[in-house]
Amino acid sequence: MTAQSPAQHAPGADAATTPWWRDAVVYQVYPRSFADADGDGMGDLPGITAHLPHLRDLGVDALWLSPFFTSPQRDGGYDVADYCDVDPRFGSLADADELIASAHAMGLKVIVDIVPNHSSSEHELFQQALAAGPGSPERDMYVFADGRGEHGELPPNNWTSIFHGEAWTRITEADGTPGQWYLHIFDTSQPDWNWQNPRVHALFRDVLRFWLDRGADGFRVDVAHGMVKPEGLPDAAVNAEGLLDIPEGEVPIYFDNDGVLEIYREWRPILDSYEGERMMVLEAWIPEHRLPLYIGPEEAHQSFNFGFLQATWGVETMRAAIEKPLALADAVGAPTTWVLSNHDVIRHATRYGFPPGYRFGEGLGRAETPDAALGLARARAATLLMLSLPGAAYLYQGEELGLPEVAEIPDALREDPAHLRAGVPGRDGCRVPLPWRADAPAYGFSPTGESWLPQPEEFGALAADAQEGVPGSTLEMYRAAIALRREHGLGRPDAPVEFLEDLPEGLLGLVRGEVVVLVNTSEQELPLPAGPDGLDLADAEVLVGSAEPVPGRLPADAAVWLRRR
Ligand code: BGC
């Protein structure tokens, strides 16, 4: 079966003319936790610049930097107080310039995270909005409303926050009286901008130009489905209590409103007016059928496809998580993206250590005990599957080391606002600073041995230097796979994805040009099946595998790329 038609994906397929983002491998850097150059225990921009050779040697095409802007860090930097400056914890604008220039000198593109749904409550414009009275132009930059009830003592509507609790906070007016309420879909420290106001549009056009002028090759748009709220701020029929509580197939009332699409139509010509292929990738949690509205030549370039990340281990689930987005890629005229981990979800080396169908909470609790070896084996296999697919693949820092989610962080050190608001474990477990050197303090994260979150002992054996040059290590597997992906043009959309049919139970197989990809999701080692056109795959060359090779066979929970002879 051919899931993707070569004809529809051929335009610009020539490597020289294909825009880089269509088949890129993009590496997400979470600046707080990547590398700390100044020794305060918090990662920084000079630390990232110093470690760019790691990304070059990994073979990725681009890095996406999570926010490094001025911020009180109430949500790890997704609470921005100044979009056009660098937080002193991370360095200076000069450090950002140096990072971008050094990345470019190594042939790496740089994607900057833009957070347009909300700012920090410490943003100067929010402070001005608080100081100015109701009905003032300052207040109109954000979503303020009068409360309900006789004295305005009830929130303007029933909306709840993604981080739990009410989505509204009442302020005290300058004269000391209880006043209006402001909307915050996330934490109280993250007031939502009012995108009905043209001045908000103008502000963000300037922010885009600021970073494009400094050399940014693209933007990852945070909460890209969130900015425009429904007219009149009506009550929600379906409400969410935390991100995971949103009923399946439903979208909270404040997300995915059509007005959001206008913003991308406004931004696209700005990006297009710059030299090079400047791009936007959306973090939009929307129903699949809405995707074609967001992506296109006049809208955004691409959007994260979270279906692959959510697919459980198994042939049917994983195959469906590949076929659906490929079919949608046809509809939007742009290749899809693939993601297995990011800074908001439990790392995939841990997720796969639980049985398929396991109901995860928000973060990993101390009492939850994954099968770590199984999780890593399956994660490596899933990564090989992902890197064989057409479109852009997004990696999250540390997955190339096989890092697990860390459960044993003391509550007092957790910083995720969802933890602070609702007591759930939250997302700190995937944000623990990276281990670079097995024998150094803080595993080489920081010269002083400081680390804003404690690293577990198991990070020592997973440190980058412990894996470097070690055949079969996760780091070497990633390097080999990324190099082979480029060599065989696997990311390019012009070669179709053909699934092998009638395989033994538990085996997923697909063909990409001369490469055959097999994933054994069963618990038994299986003989290699016959390949396309009855080829004997036992005779094929092994390009890369996620497990120790066994001649003519594929171990359980493993994947392999074979070259047809
Ligand atoms: C980011 C999160 C952040 C939230 C609010 C998300 O989509 O990825 O890390 O907490 O937006 O900005």
UniProtKB/TrEMBL annotation:
Q: Name one GO biological process term.
A: oligosaccharide catabolic process
What InterPro entries does the entry give? GH, GH13_cat_dom, O16G_dom_2
The Swiss-Prot or TrEMBL record annotates one GO molecular function as: alpha-amylase activity
Q: Which residues form the Glycosyl hydrolase family 13 catalytic domain?
A: 28-431
Q: Name one Pfam family in it.
A: Alpha-amylase
Give the family from UniProt: Belongs to the glycosyl hydrolase 13 family.
Q: What's the protein here called?
A: Alpha-amylase
Q: What is the originating organism of this protein?
A: Brachybacterium saurashtrense
Source species taxonomy: Bacteria, Bacillati, Actinomycetota, Actinomycetes, Micrococcales
